[in-house]
DNA sequence: CGGTACATTGAGGCAAGTCAAGTTGAGTGG
DNA sequence: CCACTCAACTTGACTTGCCTCAATGTACCG
């Protein structure tokens, strides 16, 4: 279902119909806070188009500036930072509904790269209009800050995981969180959800070697807890997964969508 | 000079003079962006008092709500998260000028604890007035978002360090960053700055054991790169320290003060 | 002076890393 | 439709960075 695209891509495609914010497929999902008429109206004017990129394309690149902010409409991406010698730390798995580029907007230069892990469709917002939002639509400005605070909180979680947990706990923790996120976005069906990343990506996100990560995944698979094969995550025993992760907090609260 | 206090503490002390924002000792420091008259005036009305706490006191506690935001005026603190079994991840070393509690304000509940590492003096802001700021002083709201974005960026850095670097690199990286932060706050004199934390705190921040951290510190000391003893950091060879950390980015840009 | 809190050091073990071969599956072109 | 390529996943064997355990040292404090 997420095969390669037969379109040239990497540029905005005017031919294809653009989603009207009023009919946004994301907004009704459990993951998001309902939006007022006024807010939808504003978003409609705020949105300046859509962008489609193919797998492997860089949506943002570490060390550069960008004139746009994006919200991921469809597909999967990955946010990472690289060290000069090539080591890579995955900071975040990007799912639909996630806002991208706020950091670049605020700090000027991106501190990380965002890469499409599948073909991806993005809502485009112009950077220059951010200030309008602060002066004219304080509710939306507040939501923006809320999102930044939440992103920080999630990164903190990840730091706890990488800093304090052993390999099994880290993998279990990461898969459990991904599963819950997927569920809140309606991507889970019968315990299965698409998760089109590579083992390398997970390993780089957890600070583990690829080989070790692979062995932990095998262990979980053999013990009938989770199986992640062919870009699909199958959670057989969610309780065991949570137990393995040594934590038991459930769903994340709904968040504003921008 | 940072001995224990002989005052009861943990409560606001009306007797002692409160710093007027116009005469804020932090604002003129290199670390901060200059503030307009209008902004100073707003901050003066926004500030609702000061709080002094003694070493070891908890300024915020994981899992609770708080009615206040704080800016650290004087002293040192530490921000950490704990796992149910007692493992601790230090998220941040808090220096003067740092804003505390934004996450609690936005998300409702604090996801981490903030503890005073020395006696500490804080500016107090009422949570309830945050919304005023979004509706009436968009510049300040923007600054708030800016700070949240920067905090996220710094956490990302730390994640890269903990996830990808070996012990020596992590310690060097952390000490180099602390030194640069201290310098921008005018705390460095002759290559020395106060750093009143314990080795345990650094170890918990880097995801290393106390013993291993201690051995790395000894190595750096013997090699005349940095020495951290008696709550003082002495950087003998900053270039070597940066080299050891495998990175070479300099000072952080100035930031807004709130 | 005993107590408490940190720092330091040595010894031994294991979780996780590195190296080195496969295997599998999808895409591609003859 | 089969051979070839290439990227991703697996697995086994060996190595090591970092951990844990267990003392000991040191400084301050009541």
Folded structure, characterized:
The structure is a homodimer of 258-residue chains. With 258 residues, chain A is α+β, with helices and mostly antiparallel strands. Helix content of chain A is 38%, strand content 21%. The first copy, chain A, has eight helices and eleven strands. In chain A, the strands form three sheets. Chain A has a four-stranded antiparallel β-sheet. In chain A, strand 10 (226-229) and strand 11 (232-235) form a beta hairpin. In chain A, helix 6 (199-206) crosses helix 7 (210-222). At the A-B interface, strand 5, helix 2, helix 3, helix 4 and helix 6 of A face strand 5, helix 2, helix 3, helix 4 and helix 6 of B. Chain A binds a DNA duplex (30 and 30 nucleotides) through helix 7.
- State the total count of DSSP E strands of chain A: 11
Q: Tell me the fraction of residues in β-strands of chain A, as a range.
A: 15-25%
**Mean pLDDT of chain A, nearest integer?**
92
One letter per element, helices H and strands E, the order of chain A comes to: HEEEEEEHEEHHHEHHEEH
Level of helix content of chain A? 25-40%
Largest interface: A-B, 47 and 47 residues
Structural class of chain A: alpha+beta
Write the SSE topology.
The structure is a homodimer of 258-residue chains.
Chain A: H1 37-46, E1 47-53, E2 58-60, E3 68-74, E4 77-82, E5 88-94, E6 99-100, H2 102-107, E7 113-116, E8 120-126, H3 130-136, H4 138-164, H5 167-184, E9 192-194, H6 199-206, H7 210-222, E10 226-229, E11 232-235, H8 238-245
Antiparallel strand pairs in A: 1-8, 2-7, 3-6, 3-8, 4-5, 4-7, 9-11, 10-11
Chain A binds a DNA duplex (30 and 30 nucleotides) through helix 7.
